[in-house]
Amino acid sequence: MAQKKYLQAKLTQFLREDRIQLWKPPYTDENKEVGLALKDLVKKYSDKLECCENEVEKIIEEIRCKAIERGTGNENYKTTGVATIEVFLPSRLRKDRKNLLETRLHITGRDLRSKIAETFGFQENYIKIVINKKQLQLGKSLEEQGVTHNVKAMVLELKQSEEDVRKNFQAEEEEQNEAELKEKRIQRTKRGLEILAERAEMVVDPETTPYLDIANQTGRSIKIPPSQRKALMLAMGYHEKGRAFLKRKEYGIALPCLLDADKYFCECCRELLDTVDNYAVLQLDIVWCYFRLEQLECLDDAERKLDLAQKCFKNCYGENHQRLVHIKGNCGKEKVLFLRLYLLQGIRNYHSGNGEEAREYLNKARQLFEELYIDPSKVHNLLQLGFTAQEARLGLRACEGNVDHAATHISNRREELAQIRKEEKEKKRRRLESINSLKGMGYPTHAAKHALHQAGGNLDEALKILLSNPQMWLKDSDSETSRRESPSQESIDQLVYMGFDTVAAEVALKVFRGNVQLAALTLAHHGGILPPDLQLSGEDSSSTPSTSPSDSAGGSGLNTRRADTPGMGLRERLTWRLRRMFPGQGGRQEVCRRGLGAVPHCVSYCRDL
After folding, report:
1. Does the predicted model carry a pTM greater than 0.85?
2. Assuming Cys at both sites, which of 72, 216, 398, 474 could form a disulfide with 330, CB separation 3.0 to 4.6 Å?
């Protein structure tokens, strides 16, 4: 079969080079029968290929008949609008795997699936149709999905090949249940991946809750733009699921997952795809899946996909792998990907009739295979040292088979990964400490995480964000009764002792529901006056001071003018107020710096002095 495909591809190539049109005279007469000139053409090509004339004549006749059928279909499509679709059936149907099906393009994908199932004897719910490297959508018309005349459609079965005639009804029922289970598995996978991606978008602070993390070749996390994070996660999720099916050799289920992954990868920017090698590996997996389904001819752009994979590897790893070696110190693991690439390029060229190119790529694949071959005794020696089989293989490939160097490499790699985990853990610990500091000031956990994420982990910047945007943490859903509750006199006194106006202190405590820390920090940040968007409405608004605290009754407002000096920061304002409250006592600046997160405790400490 492979020899016939190669010969057919080679003859097709010769015909194109010589610009021979077999469906026209002198190769086809008026009655569409074989012309006299075809014999001379057969002899010419059989001598060129050093093949039997009968075999060459048979293949050329098949090409001629197919060309006539295509021409007839083209005329029919122009006249009636009825398109012809070339249907490729599963590999278990060894005879007549390629068939022509006529249909109009305004019908839906579900109608086409029904027609294919009825025509070729499939169960409608247990097949999938792939056209133009995309799974056919049942609810849309063929025109909407880009289906055209003379397009190729590949049929995938969701069940394993069984006997043509079932012995009893029970066996048939088990087959249907198996197909239903596989379809449910696919749907569960798709829904699960969508839920994962949606939840990842809802994570407020990825540093404390890394719902899904993406790492580079060294294991360190990669910062992904939020706009592309969901698409990349869906793409990688579908890819991993497809690879799992590939390992179990369930190619018919794997291919739709891989094609969905390709669709989502195309939504990511080129700079992102050049950072990781996942997109290149996906191209290899798609071509391999088509090959194992024996439908490589349905993949018109197999060459483009392999070239794209090679280009992506070059951009990701660098010329001669120098970027990869700089990052990891070796390229042993990634050489396996080039082995797959060379093998698939050889297979594709062979099926395209390019014998010399096929031989060149297959020789490169063989040489690389011999280079990557691992001596089992060396793996056993490393296992005795306590390493895993996977670590042993990767280490030996990275160190070109040297056991001692491989042992050192594995140990170093373990230390690197442990150090990365330690750094990530320490980074998370510091972030949690910052969150707890903001919580100690009275801010909600959600707001603290959000502000720290915006500030890149900087606590001072996060505090400024919270003070400048109180809407981030003030909930509109809070009932007004909590606002109307009068704050305790003790809380008001604490703010007055710090130098704030009595009325402003009472209003602030109502707004912040009695939280002295938040009230003090916000008043200090805004110069002793609540901003208009925070002042209470309705009956409470009448008590809101319309003038500055310095103009209000009470001596405590006399300190505000100094606190409003331009350029004075939050700590300086609080320190100045404490010094006014406790004149003649030293160490106020250090006391306030340490007590910034708990203002009442700071005031109490100053009194005790």
Report:
1. no
2. 398
